[in-house]
Specification:
A: alpha/beta; Rossmann fold; 6-stranded mixed β-sheet; 4-stranded antiparallel β-sheet; 14 helices; globular; B: mainly alpha; Ammonium transporter fold; two-stranded antiparallel sheet; binds iron/sulfur cluster
Chain lengths: ~450, ~350
């Protein structure tokens, strides 16, 4: 219960304080050298896989479309390199599942002419809200904070809902990750234009950027740049996990709560991540599809923790080599952050639109330790940001009592992992909650 | 590097350092100051009783798990050691070994293992053992050696301040008269008073409390709410009639209040889950303690108060819940209307 003088805002229910370990915060973004080969999955987003429009042997340019979205909740996929299409096959991606992907052998770096590759800041927004949404859709922009939900879908507000706030998520509450932090430091003006584009598309008058106070430099830059902006604010937030959860950010900044089973739009809010906002700027103002992103490569034993600008489809191993090689003691490799990321089994897994970081965990921290009985300490309950009772959800899911679990709002769980993190008995709480949720979803679809 | 060597497990991939063995070790460390003070005041009897109780508890838990329940013994979590220490802290330093053995058997066998071991017991095992001994061996359990560095095992016995008070009041003396026969408050604070092994020095127990708060093993909710309740209640009675009721400071520093508030009531397993629940629990223990002390036939009531409140924990848990995220709109009509207004005003 640390008392601080200038207490910043935070969410009200639960939460934890893991070490933030932002090892690469002071390392500038460097472009990773072009890979020899990329593997681009045709599904990197929530929704339907895109439909492939190229064939083996085709020569493609950087930025050329490879697969078009199928239906509305889907996303275009572009080539991140120039070269020749190789085999189109099923590969293991960072979710741990096999998905169809297009292999491209890289040759040169020949971009589509329509893409503006200069660094000039384009401030004037020439497009109508409709055009903005369609440009974002064409460019294949998805949420880059991890969930990879297609951004144009979020911008198409359902009939009857009124949005009064756009929240920009610059929280980056996952320990270790610094990709968003670096983008905020290095591309703040572009992000601000991106925010204005999103505001125009949504027709909202008010936007707030939320940033955790361990990124004081980023907060300061935005405060400077936004001094004369009446409609865009910056808010420093306490370092408190999971501050960057959509629902938690809304509670922290606006003191509103998204109802169970509802969407942010139900309380008048749309949330976009800062990385996504930058991609929106590039898509709308520069005509550039989402073909590269910033990825943090980090871990306690990593020689040079780094932030790389990486072409989508680059194999993980290339990033690891650029960061000084795979340390001897590596026991686990995680795509994403330590709290919500996925462990990967294979170093050829390609970087996807939603990959914010690659984290190397040493052997001694990689495996779980002995599980004890629940000692009823209540720490999981005090930690749950959704106000659930995780220890009971575990018991119910274990017994297969999914109906009870549903009544206890198991479906509200945002899978933040706080409960498993704090449990002194090392109980696999979230594992069982996931199991229960999956079973409930299966029951529903039958 | 071969991929087969990588661990693949679901998130989260990091975990707090505060695991059960760490916590148990922390609690044991927190009890050491009280033990040291006890040795200083009562001599080596304190160490002898503590070691015996720990030994009995660990051996009994191991045997029950291995030979009766036929499952791996869970003594490495350290909880049996704590039960043993807490039992020892709650008995006189000159208790014969066979009574310690019986107390340990009841604490572990009935108080803990009969419910399924660590995590399943509704009542604090050490207190179950203690109360059993108090009822079965009232004489041995209430003859305390005299404090003040008596370094032999069979020293003269003395009454506790609470005992002096209760008997004196029964005999018709007033509180101020009785206070003259007692050690000073400084003696209470540092433990120069008669009583059970680990309960005398408020100072030593407070050191343990600070350590446990610092390590985030426990939160302030139970001890603080319990102590404030006792202070307030005894304070009111004292203001009403200072000749019949002792002052709050006396009540806080004597008997098992400090030991109970810091080490017994804060047991995870037998206390509520949420901070709100913990406050209800602490207040309940405080009220019951004062009622038993002032109006019951026993001079001391902390153990009974904690055991009674242990029984209420399931009920407290079902009411004192964390507010669920998203329930705000259902809970507060006003909130809903305010939001509605915010949303329409910007239209
Ligand atoms: S993972 Fe789910 S149950 Fe566990 S703390 Fe997070 S929201 Fe609560
Ligand atoms: S944190 Fe673990 S031990 Fe504590 S109540 Fe929850 S499940 Fe039980």
């Amino acid at each position: 219960m640390a008392m601080r003088l200038n207490k910043h805002k935070t969410f009200k229910t639960g939460g934890i304080h893991p070490h933030d370990n932002k090892l690469s915060a002071q390392v500038a973004i460097t472009p990773l050298s072009l890979p020899k080969m990329v593997t681009i999955p045709i599904i990197q987003h929530i929704g339907a896989p895109a439909k492939i429009v190229v064939q083996r042997g085709d020569i493609v340019k950087t930025g050329q479309i490879l697969a078009t979205h199928e239906g509305f909740v889907s996303s275009n996929i572009h080539s991140s390199v120039s070269g020749r299409i190789g085999v189109i096959e099923e590969v293991m991606d960072s979710t741990g599942f096999k998905h169809t992907a297009v292999n491209i052998r890289v040759k040169g770096d020949d971009w589509e002419e329509a893409i503006d590759r200069t660094d000039t800041l384009v401030e004037e927004i020439k497009f109508s809200p409709k055009e903005i949404v369609s440009r974002i859709m064409e460019a294949g922009v998805v949420g880059m904070g991890g969930a990879a939900f297609p951004s144009h879908v979020k911008l198409s507000v359902p009939e009857g809902k009124h949005i009064d706030h756009l929240l920009i998520n610059g929280v980056e509450c996952e320990p270790y990750l610094t990709a968003d932090h670096r983008v905020m430091l290095e591309k703040p003006k572009e992000i601000i234009v991106g925010i204005k584009i999103l505001m125009k598309a949504l027709g909202v008058q008010k936007a707030i950027i939320g940033i955790e106070d361990n990124k004081a430099d980023a907060i300061e830059i935005f405060q400077q740049l936004l001094k004369n902006e009446k409609h865009i604010g910056v808010e420093a937030l306490e370092v408190h996990y999971p501050q960057g959860g959509e629902k938690q950010l809304i509670q922290a900044l606006l003191n509103r709560e998204v109802p169970s089973g509802g969407l942010p739009a139900d309380v008048g809010v749309i949330v976009h991540n800062v990385g996504t906002t930058y991609a929106v700027y590039e898509a709308v103002q520069k005509n550039k599809p989402l073909i590269e992103r910033v990825v943090t490569v980090t871990g306690k034993s990593v020689k040079q923790p780094s932030n790389f600008l990486v072409r989508i489809g680059t194999p993980v191993i290339d990033l690891l080599i650029a960061a000084g090689g795979v340390p001897e003691d590596t026991g686990k490799i995680v795509s994403g952050g330590p709290m919500m990321g996925k462990a990967i089994a294979d170093l050829d897994v390609p970087i996807a639109k939603g990959t914010s970081g690659i984290l190397l965990i040493p052997k001694d921290e990689a495996s779980r330790s002995e599980v004890y009985n629940c000692v009823h300490c209540g720490k999981c309950i005090e930690a749950c940001p959704m106000g659930l009772e995780p220890y009971r959800l575990l018991i119910m899911s274990k017994k297969g009592n999914n109906k009870r679990a549903k009544e206890e709002h198991i479906l509200d769980c945002i899978e933040c992992g706080s409960c498993s993190f704090v449990c002194p008995s090392n109980r696999p709480i979230l594992d069982y909650i996931r199991l229960g949720k999956t079973q409930l979803k299966k029951q529903k679809s039958v | 590097m071969s991929a087969g060597l990588l661990t693949v497990s679901p998130s989260p991939h990091i975990h707090t350092d505060l695991t059960v063995p760490q916590i148990m070790r922390g609690v044991i460390i927190a009890m050491i100051p009280a033990l040291v003070f006890s040795v200083y005041n009562f001599g080596l009897g304190a160490v002898y009783v503590t070691l015996l109780a720990i030994l009995f508890c660990v051996v009994i838990e191991y045997s029950i798990a291995r030979y009766l329940l036929k499952r791996p013994a869970s003594i490495y979590d350290g909880s049996a050691v704590i039960t043993g220490m807490l039992l020892a802290f709650n008995v006189p330093t000159n208790l014969p070994w066979h009574i310690i053995l019986i107390g340990s058997a009841v604490a572990i066998g009935i108080g803990k293992m009969s419910f399924g071991g660590l995590g399943n017991n509704p009542f604090n095992p050490a207190l179950v053992g203690r109360v059993f001994l108090l009822l079965s061996f009232p004489v041995e359990m209430t003859s305390w050696p005299k404090a003040g560095a008596t370094w032999s095992l069979d020293a003269t016995t003395s009454a506790t301040p609470l005992g002096i008070l209760k008997d004196g009041l029964r005999a018709g003396d007033t509180v101020p008269e009785l206070m003259n026969q007692m050690p000073s408050y400084a003696d209470f604070f540092f433990g120069l008073q008669g009583g059970s092994l680990g309960e005398m020095s408020a100072f030593a127990i407070l050191l343990g409390l600070i350590y446990m708060l610092y390590r985030k093993i426990i939160t302030w909710h139970i001890p603080v709410s319990m102590l404030i309740t006792i202070a307030l209640m005894t304070g009111i009675f004292w203001l009403v009639d200072p000749t019949r009721f002792a002052n709050p400071l006396f009540h806080l520093l004597t008997g098992g209040v400090m030991l109970g508030a810091v080490f017994m009531a804060t047991d995870y397993v037998t206390s509520p889950f949420t901070h709100r629940g913990m406050i209800v629990f602490g207040v309940g223990i405080g009220v019951l303690t004062v009622v038993i002390r002032l109006f019951g036939s026993y001079p001391e009531g902390v153990s009974f108060a904690i055991l009674i409140m242990n029984a209420f924990v399931p009920i407290i848990n079902s009411y004192a819940k964390q507010p669920r995220y998203g329930s705000k709109s259902q809970r507060h009509k006003a909130y809903q209307e305010k939001l509605e207004k915010e949303l329409t005003s910007t239209k």
